[in-house]
Amino acid sequence: MAGPVADQSAGDDDAVESPKDKRRYRSIFISDIHLGTRGCQADILLDFLKHTESDHLYLVGDIIDGWRLRRSWFWAQSHNDVIQKVLRKARKGTRVIYVPGNHDEAARDYVDLHFGGVAVLMEAIHTGADGRRFLVMHGDAFDGVVKYARWLAHLGDWAYNIALTLNTWFNALRRRFGYPYWSLSAYLKHKVKNAVDYISSFEVAVAEEARRHRVDGVICGHIHHAEIRDIDGVTYCNDGDWVESCTALVEHGDGRMEIVNWAPEYERRHSRKRSRETLALPA
Known about the structure:
Blueprint: E1 23-30, H1 42-50, E2 52-59, H2 66-71, H3 77-91, E3 95-98, E4 114-115, E5 118-120, E6 124-127, E7 133-136, H4 144-148, H5 150-176, H6 184-191, H7 193-212, E8 217-220, E9 227-231, E10 234-238, E11 247-251, E12 257-261, H8 262-280
Parallel strand pairs: 1-2, 2-3, 3-5, 7-8, 8-10
Antiparallel strand pairs: 1-11, 4-5, 6-7, 9-10, 11-12
């Protein structure tokens, strides 16, 4: 069982990758990775981190799932590799900002400190290349379940982890038969009317907070639902997650924001790799 200070194999590919292999962004925002859970798509995230570069990297909460780790320990080598990759980016000059969420709330005890080149903040203001100012926060403060009934939040987390376990087995079967990744848990969640109503209410509440801060937009995570939309003049951005959708929010050099879904990119790259390996087999 690997621990969170294991070898630094995550960066080995850096030496063989050329700059043309990497996508260049001004800023990258990722959240809801949930390292320490079996549902975390660490291999896909690691592939994303290896093939992208940015001046700014924001970790917008729920990076490590402390709730889950307190109940049962799980820590794969790929989870180590993700942390090592982020720290390596910080050493190489990327400005890394960590805004803890509710699943890694213990890190909030270290707000305003720096660790390995990573700044820990309760919330941040990001100024885009086009001059727009964004409030960056995880978003759990606007989740009524977490805010007012913590035991209900944990019950929901337990049920959600069962769905993620089923999702993991389901996608293992899909890969065996050559089908790409598909999130069963996300499909079920967004088929439920109450979930859709909750997402809408959450988005409006977060946009109101941005308005109170007199900024142009807000960037958050928490609800595992990637989105960019205008809410009464406020640009609402949610970077999604790396459990269900494998998405990130990226800022281009001109300040334009975009949601990047990395699962199809990962599948294409590894499908080509499998094809080359098959062709290389002796007849």
